[in-house]
Design brief:
With 114 residues, the chain is an alpha+beta fold. It folds into 2 domains: 1-32; 36-113, 2-Layer Sandwich (Alpha-Beta Plaits), CATH 3.30.70.100. The protein contains 3 helices and 4 strands.
């Protein structure tokens, strides 16, 4: 009986340490991925408040480090630095296009130019 208890305890300990090691290696692998910087062109921006609202919207996404306006004009450009293991460019584009206008929050005037 003592042998069975010892054996079960050893198996449980082995399983617990294996799961712990696996979860640690996964989080280390995600943090080792270098941030990527991408330039995103956006149409429909009419004022500097639009630029700030889009930047704020994108920066709320998990994995986005910074989103700053690089150029304002008919087609504005944003430089976005992000972790591709946590967020995709497609999700960043969707966040931009889902941002409401400063004049009418229900309006979605911004379009990512691919």
């Amino acid at each position: 009986m003592n042998f069975i208890k010892s054996f079960l305890l050893a198996v449980i300990g082995l399983m617990a340490s294996t799961n712990l090691a696996f979860s640690q290696s996964t989080s280390i692998a995600e943090s080792e991925i270098a941030p990527t910087t991408s330039t995103v062109s956006v149409k429909g921006i009419t004022c500097s408040k639009d630029l700030a609202m889009i930047s704020d919207s994108v920066e709320k996404l998990e994995g986005v480090n910074i989103c700053k306006a690089a150029k304002k004009g008919a087609t504005s450009k944003f430089e976005v630095t992000f972790n591709p293991a946590l967020v995709s460019e497609k999700e960043i584009h969707a966040a931009i296009e889902a941002t409401g206008s400063c004049e009418d929050p229900n309006e979605r005037p911004y379009k990512v130019k691919l």
